[in-house]
Amino acid sequence: MHEEIKKKMRSRMGKSIENLKEEFKKIRSGRANASLVEDLIVDYYDSKVPLKQLAGISVPEPRLIVIQPWDKGALTIIEKAIQKSDLMLNPTNDGKVIRIAIPPLTEERRKDLVKIAKAKAEEARIAIRNIRRDGNEEVKKAEKEGHVSEDDSKKTLEEIQKITDEFIKEVNDLLEAKIEEIMEV
After folding, report:
1. Whole-angstrom Cα distance, residue 169 to residue 162?
2. Which tens digits make up the pLDDT trace of 3-31?
3. In the chain, N or C: fewer CB atoms in 10 Å?
4. What whole-number distance in Å separates Cα of residue 177 and Cα of residue 185?
């Protein structure tokens, strides 16, 4: 019973970590990265389609993203989608490909991005703590119903806390790495 609860918790906490990693990919550093634009939604023939399904995305230089649509007719709609996005990037369209020069970040913008990263990390920590709470409630309910002894319950609650601490540490490590990446000149 307790192993099942812990396994379910690890799985849910792992999803929180994966979600945080995805969120961090969307926070740009001073470097070009295809993940900045690949999930950008483009309105393509009345369908909402992620950019990565419409074009090849490459990073030939540290500060340049090149987008090559498979359908040349999609060039202008992709360009408009990038301009409308909150990425604050300025694409150039030469009729064949779209180039996005990634400008160096200002100190002020870096600080804003660090705040965003910290907020995303805090959301992940809250999600992990909520999962811990759910696990603790399941254990206490099982104890109350007489399925497990008080000692087993106490031991499991301690193990749940250790698992939680492990995942919170991973969130903190990811945040630290992201801040370092953002602040890198």
Report:
1. 11
2. 888 899 999 999 999 999 988 887 777 67
3. C
4. 14
For residues 86 and 121, what is the distance between their CA atoms, to the nearest angstrom? 20
Three-state secondary-structure class, residue 76: helix
Amino acid residing at 111:
K
Give the DSSP H/E element, type plus range, for residue 99.
strand 98-101
**Which distant-in-sequence residues (6+ apart) come within 8 Å of 157 by Cβ?**
136, 139
- Contact indicator for 22, 45 with CB cutoff of 8 Å: no
Tokens of residue 132, six digits? 């811990």
pTM for this entry: 0.72
The 10s digit of each residue's pLDDT in 58-67 is: 999 888 999 9
Nearest to residue 98, comparing CAs of 150, 48, 56? 56
Tokens of residue 96, six digits: 């064949």
| Number of helices followed by number of strands (H, E) in the chain | 4, 6
pLDDT in tens, the chain (185 residues): 678 888 999 999 999 999 999 888 877 776 778 888 888 888 888 889 998 998 999 999 888 999 999 988 888 899 888 888 877 788 998 989 999 988 887 888 888 889 999 999 999 999 999 999 999 999 999 889 888 888 989 999 999 999 999 999 999 999 999 999 888 76
Rounded CA-CA distance 162/112 in Å is: 33
